[in-house]
Amino acid sequence: MIEEGEVKIEIRDFEQYKGPGKKKAGFYNPTLEIDRDINVIFCQYIANKGAKKMLDGLSATGIRGIRIAKEVKSIDVHINDINPASYEIIRENVKKNKVNVKIFCENIHSLLLKEKYDYVDIDPYGSPVPFISCVFKGLKRKGYTSFTATDTATLCGIYKKACIRRYHALPLSGQAMKEIGLRILIGYIARQTTTFEYGLRPILSYAYGHFFRIYARLEKGARKADETFSKIGWIFWKNGWRISSFDRLPTPPFAGPLWIGKLHEKNFLNEMEKIMTEKKLGRKKEIEKMLRIFKEEETLPPLFYESRYISKEMKAKQPKLISIIEKLRRKGYDAGRTHFMPDAFKTNAPYDEIKKLFLNQ
Ligand SMILES: C[S@@+](CC[C@H](N)C(=O)[O-])C[C@H]1O[C@@H](n2cnc3c(N)ncnc32)[C@H](O)[C@@H]1O
Is the full-model pTM beyond 0.85? Predict the structure, then answer.
């Protein structure tokens, strides 16, 4: 029996592991507790905006849906898993936690042809790619969705061929590869979104441990879809990070197509803090710390610089992160931390200005 938020969940054959974990009925991954906490905050945020009917589409133990049903008030929660053994575990956990939810044992592709939701969560093993298109069948004209990806090595360019095959995008390993990987994931989801004539706006997108996660708002309409597609482009390195639009293929090294728009929505970040104070969350302290950094990076351009790479290039020692950021700000540039890496920073300063800080310490 494990406790998370306000629920108690029975886990069979529980193993303490870090990373994606092993596939089995009633799968439970403790690393994702932080995201389930964030999921509760997110669902409260969208419930406050009128979202009512929510689906935990790939549920395993039921934990996500049960937490949402118990910790977010006045909503209808559906919980689904294709595996009959998981379905039985979900039923027991729902009973134990005395929540009023509807449980399904269906392939999510068929469930989403029958029901329409305000919010659909997709938390699969590995890549969410096989589950993206079905979301548009079961979502209202305006709705919300979230996706997890644990195939981060593929998205970050360690398995380049797999990234091309699965996400139809060129990755770039090395500096900033985590953000490039997350942007490839969002870019792929956004391209699927526009195919179905929906527009997408990320509300929160982040990398943590072995997973990427994106929470987004979707809205039907050709104009919304066009707006979304205008945020698909390329990133390339030319004496510093640069971005270009979809119709301007840069010269190598480059990555994409990927998402060149914002990763987070400011309004959500502001509301998160308020919502958190009302909830019992196991990982609250860590989320508060992450939130401070999300707020910093929300105002800054795509991609970040890693001090260790610049130190190596300049054959100079690594300055303190805070000193780099303060010096850049004093020179009139925007600069701040990023949640992707502890020794990295985002800035709109030209790369030559950045390099000077490593020489003149
Ligand atoms: C990673 S687990 C979900 C973990 C869970 N969301 C959590 O927070 O602990 C993925 C689940 O998706 C289920 N699944 C896989 N394919 C499915 C499909 N086509 N339809 C519905 N469920 C599916 C698996 O049986 C498995 O239980």
Answer: yes
